[in-house]
Design goal:
The complex is a heterodimer. Chain A is built from 6 helices and no strands. By secondary structure, chain A is mainly alpha-helical. Chain A has 2 domains: about 25-100; about 100-140. Chain B is mainly α. Chain B has one domain (about 20-225): Four Helix Bundle (Hemerythrin (Met), subunit A). Chain B has helices at about 1-5, 10-15, 25-55, 60-65, 80-100, 105-135, 155-190, 190-195, 200-225. In chain B, helix 3 packs parallel to helix 9 (about 200-225) and helix 5 (about 80-100) packs antiparallel against helix 6 (about 105-135). In chain B, about 40% of the residues are buried. Classes of the chains: A mainly alpha, B mainly alpha.
C-alpha cells in the first residue's frame, strides 16, 4: 500500500468522477427499489401491529430477528442502489464496508456491558420494581422483603 | 511486501488517475458519512446498552399511537410509517434529480430537487407535530410519563434517548434541506450548466440517502423493537 497515498485530486481524478456511470441506474430500477423498500416497511409495520405482541412467548426471539434482518435488507438497498455503491469499483466498495465491521465488536461489547449491569442490579438492588431479582444465582440481599 | 503484489494493479495504483474512479469531492463525502455513521451508531448502541441494563422498557405501540386530527384513535405505528414513506419517496426524487443532472437536464434536475426539498419539509413537519404531541403528554428530556411493559416505573432514559436521537437525525434532515436549497439555487442560476456537469447533486444526494439510511435504523430501534 506504500504507493496508495500518492494520488491527488488532479485532472485525471476529477475526470473519473463523472461521465463514466452512464446507464447503470435506470428510472425503472429506481422505482423498483422504491417499491421494495415500501413493501418491506409495510410488512414490518403489520408485524409490529399484529404479530409482535401476540406471538407465543417461546417464539418472541423471532421479533428482533425479523426486524433486524428487514432493516439490513433495506439498508443494503439504500446504500447499494440509491448511494450507487454497487456500481463503484471494488476497491471503493471494500474501503467503505470493511471499516464498518468495527460495528460488530461495538454492538457485542456494549450489549454485553448492558446485560452485565442488569445482572448486577438484579443481584444487589433493593428496587422493588425488579421483580425477577431473586431468579439469579446470586441470592439478593433483600430477598425476604421482595416477595 | 507491497512491491511484489502490485504488478497486476499497476494501472490503478500507479498514479495519474483516481484508483477509486471517484472524484475528490464524492470520496470526501463518503468519508464524512462513514464518520457520521459511527456517531449515529454510538448513539443507538448506547441506547441499547441502557435497554439491556434495565429489566423493562416502555412499549412503542403504547407511546406512538396517535395521528394528527384523529383524536384518541389507537393507531400504533401509522404516523411513523407515513414519515418513513415520505423520507423514502424523497430519496427517490433525489435519485431522479441525479439522473436528470447526468443528462444535463436543467429543468428536470430543478423539478426533482424541489420535490426532494418538499419531502424533507414534510418529514420535518411530521417530526415537529410528533414532538409537540409528546411534549403535551408530559414527555421531554428528564420527564417520562410512559410506564414500562411490565408496569414498573420507567426511567427517563426512554425519553432522553428518543429526543436526542430523533433530534440529531432531524437536525441532519434540516441541514439536508438547507443544502438542497443551495443546490437548487445553483441549478436555477446555471452554475452547473456552465461547469459542464451536475456532480454537486450527486454529493448532496449521498448525504440525503444517508439521512434516509439512518432513519431506517432509528425506525427499527425506537418504533419497532
Amino acid at each position: 500500500m506504500s504507493e496508495a497515498p500518492s494520488h491527488g485530486h488532479d485532472a485525471a481524478g476529477h475526470d473519473a468522477g463523472h461521465g463514466h456511470q452512464g446507464t447503470t441506474m435506470t428510472t425503472k430500477r429506481i422505482w423498483t427499489v422504491f417499491w421494495i423498500l415500501l413493501g418491506i416497511t409495510l410488512v414490518e409495520v403489520v408485524w409490529g401491529m399484529k404479530v409482535s405482541h401476540t406471538i407465543p412467548h417461546q417464539y418472541e426471539w423471532l421479533n428482533p430477528v425479523f426486524f433486524l434482518s428487514m432493516t439490513f435488507v433495506k439498508a443494503g438497498y439504500i446504500v447499494a442502489e440509491f448511494m450507487h455503491l454497487r456500481y463503484e469499483v471494488t476497491a471503493m466498495i471494500r474501503s467503505v464496508l470493511i471499516p464498518l465491521l468495527l460495528f460488530i465488536w461495538f454492538v457485542l461489547a456494549f450489549c454485553f456491558d448492558g446485560a452485565s449491569w442488569l445482572h448486577l442490579r438484579q443481584a444487589y438492588s433493593y428496587n422493588p420494581n425488579d421483580k425477577q431479582a431473586t431468579q439469579t444465582e446470586q441470592p439478593a440481599p433483600a430477598e425476604g422483603t421482595l416477595k | 511486501m507491497a512491491t511484489v503484489a502490485v504488478s497486476k494493479d499497476q494501472s490503478v495504483w500507479g498514479g495519474g488517475k483516481s484508483p477509486y474512479a471517484l472524484s475528490y469531492g464524492k470520496l470526501m463525502m463518503w468519508f464524512f458519512l462513514m464518520s457520521d455513521a459511527f456517531t449515529f451508531g454510538a448513539l443507538l448502541i448506547s441506547l441499547w446498552t441502557t435497554r439491556f441494563s434495565v429489566s423493562s422498557w416502555p412499549d412503542p405501540n403504547q407511546v406512538f399511537k396517535t395521528f394528527p386530527l384523529m383524536g384518541e384513535a389507537d393507531l400504533p405505528l401509522v404516523f411513523v410509517s407515513l414519515m418513513t414513506f415520505i423520507l423514502i419517496l424523497s430519496s427517490v426524487t433525489m435519485v431522479l434529480a441525479v439522473q436528470a443532472g447526468h443528462n444535463m437536464d436543467k429543468k428536470g434536475a430543478a423539478k426533482w430537487m424541489i420535490f426532494t426539498i418538499i419531502g424533507g419539509l414534510c418529514f420535518l413537519s411530521c417530526q415537529a407535530w410528533e414532538w409537540t404531541h409528546l411534549f403535551h403528554e408530559g414527555a421531554w428530556w428528564g420527564r417520562n410519563p410512559f410506564p414500562n411493559r411490565d408496569g414498573s416505573l420507567p426511567t427517563t432514559a426512554f425519553t432522553n434517548y428518543f429526543f436526542t436521537v430523533t433530534g440529531f437525525h432531524g437536525f441532519h434532515v434540516f441541514s439536508g434541506v438547507v443544502i438542497n436549497c443551495v443546490i437548487l439555487a445553483n441549478i436555477l442560476g446555471g452554475t452547473y450548466e456552465r461547469r459542464g456537469h451536475y456532480e454537486m447533486i450527486e454529493k448532496v444526494g449521498l448525504y440525503w440517502h444517508f439521512v434516509d439510511l439512518v432513519w431506517v435504523f432509528v425506525f427499527t430501534c425506537y418504533y419497532l423493537l
